[in-house]
Write the structure tokens for this entry.
Amino acid sequence: MKNSPPPLLTRYGLVLALVLLVPSLAYADDIAATVMQLDLKRHVVGYLAVAITVMAYAIAMTEDLHQMSKAKPMVLGSALIWFAIFMYYSSEYGTAKHVAVVFQSNLTAYAELFLFITVSMTFLNTMTERGIFDALRIVLANRQYSYRQLFWITGVLAFVLSLVISSLTVGLLMGYIILAIGKDDAKFVGLAGLNAVVAANAGGTMSPLGGISTFFVWQQNMLHFTQFFALTVPCIVNFLVPAIIMHFSVTKGTPRFSKEQPLLKRGSKRVIFIFVLTFSITILSNVFFDMPAIAGMMLGLALLQFFAYFLTKTEKLSHVSLPDSQETPDSQKGFDVFKCIAGVDWDTLLFFYGAMMIVGALNFLGYLDAMAQYLFTEINATLANIMIGLASSSIDNGTLMFAVLNMHPKLPIGQWLLLTLTLGVGGSLLAIGSAPALHVLGLMKGVMKEGEGYTFTLHLRWMPAILLGFFASIGVLFLMNGGQF
């Protein structure tokens, strides 16, 4: 009787076999192109899909009113729409295998976004766990900067950090720092919070690593990494115009606080080095070898996992050398990288799953082709891109960008730059238009008194200044890159 393979080996062998059997995205796209696709825009399935989409987005956008996470309606809505499509094709043709290929191609596109955000947030959670951002807060407080200086410092930090960290994460981080160093002055907290939101959106727009919409453009090769450099000055202008206007309303005094000593845990500086190395590898491998961004990110995650293992093993060795009554201090202990992975924003990840699958379904039903025909053919492409950017003030920009990409418009480089700019900074116009704003609004609850700090009303009051920055950045883009339109 032959020995059966170990259960662990069997399990991993099965997983490997399944991975090898899954078709690649390019292969799936080729098959999807040959699918017999019906125009269901005026069919009951199409009407049902539109109704479900509107309801799902309405519930997701009013998250603060009913306290239901935005992921729930989006995931349910996407499932219902695809069930309706599969049921219709099965009843009409007896099979829906070709529809499954289209579904899988959309799922594969989401998988890369999922892994990219997961790795980014894992690094952020690791740096938070090692005390890096808390040390930054203490350093800013100990320097005794004035409120106006802190207004600019936190804004510039938000702009710079959003170049390599998703803007939604930067919003959460800067909101925490602003609350910690200025919670005694509600006016400062409100204006600094608003400034950080605008800065995070502007900084994230000029980098494919900083936002969902820019990542989609880079992922689909509509813009090469170096072409994003053309957005540098427009994005800086977008940040500076409202910041300069708000500056004169910020409190002139200096916050009072008690001196603290920053404490970085063991390995914190090496974590920062691995973080910088990861994004450097990601960018350089894409520029020189055309490797997908996720390849470099996963390499960085592997390095972080090995470093966590090293810290844990050396912690045990140092613990052995201590007397029995003495324990290893928390600052000298290692960390569990899987706890950092578990701490990612799953609500946001699942929201984007629902949003991308809904967009994919609407594209399959024929709605996006009709919209593309109207936006980019019947009206001016420049006007269409500005209108889409303004729409991002109330609709998630990542979802809008994914929808436009699924329309497959034939646009010159200049128009792709314009679309990337308007979608990225358009979310700053309203508090409900961007993830950083929603995160900062959530932070204010339970910390500031009702109606104080950063609120929807405060954001709306300063919307004209933000709108001025929006159109100023568009004007600068045309001045600097007019020949590419």
Summary: The chain is about 70% helix and 0% strand. The radius of gyration is 24 Å. Residues 363 and 406 are 7 Å apart (CA to CA).
